[in-house]
Amino acid sequence: MRTAEDSARFRSDDCMLCEGAGVLTWQQPQLGVLRTVEVPCPAGCGAYWKHPCSENDRVVDGRDELPARQEGNVAQANRIGADFIRNALELWGFTQDDRHHPKG
Question: How many angstroms separate the CA atoms of 71 and 48, rounded?
Answer without folding.
Answer: 40
